[in-house]
Amino acid sequence: MTVYGSNGTALPLGSQPPETTARTQTITGLTGGASYGFSIKAKTAAAGFGAESAKVTTTIQPVTDRLTITSAKWKAGDFRVIGTGSVVGSTVTVYRVTSTGAIGAVIPGAVATVTAAAPPGIGDFSIRLRNGAAPAQNPARIYVKSSNGGVAGPFTVANG
Question: How far is residue 146's CA from residue 93's CA, in Å, rounded to a whole number?
Fold first, then answer.
């Protein structure tokens, strides 16, 4: 297998996967958001390598962090969302859910930073809006999005 960078040139030999008889190949060390091309050559014991296949190009999807919403509650003058995130220091923002189930408008002020927690690799976030900062009505369902691309939801907001 040959791996090509976004400029169309083959990556250095040291970054190429080893020869294998496996039908699938895992390639590590690629950059999320970058485009790469891939081709293969068949090899037989008698004839050696055949012609290189046509190149297939794809863009590697970036890896995002993981978010969970563990609790979301609303009552007049008090709105609270609690959850976890896998990237400490990322910023999470709360959004309303549209009538079609998509991510809608930001809930003003509903932003927090994921802080370190136990066990390692997991962080916590807590958002609390009070009095005039809290939504006037229960937002019903919410999404939470991270500055690192993670999304959790839709999640139903409880009264209370």
Answer: 7
User: What are the backbone angles phi and psi of residue 147, rounded to the nearest 5°?
Assistant: -65, -10
How many CA atoms are closer than 13 Å to the CA of 43, on its beta-carbon side? 10
Written as six digits, the tokens of 9 are: 């040139």
Residues in the chain: 160
Residue ranges, comma separated, of all CATH 2.60.40.2440 domains in the chain are: 67-159
- Model confidence pLDDT, tens digit, residues 6-52: 677 777 656 666 777 777 777 777 777 788 888 888 878 788 888 88
Q: In terms of pLDDT, which residue wins out, 144 or 40? A: 144
Using CA atoms, how far residue 93 sits from 99, 103, 134, in Å, is 19, 11, 14
DSSP E strands in 40-77: the ranges are 41-44, 48-52, 56-59, 67-75
Classify domain 67-159 by CATH number. Answer: 2.60.40.2440
**Both tokens assigned to 41:** 């050559």
| CA quadruple 16, 22, 23, 27: dihedral sign | negative
pTM summary value:
0.63
DSSP 114: -
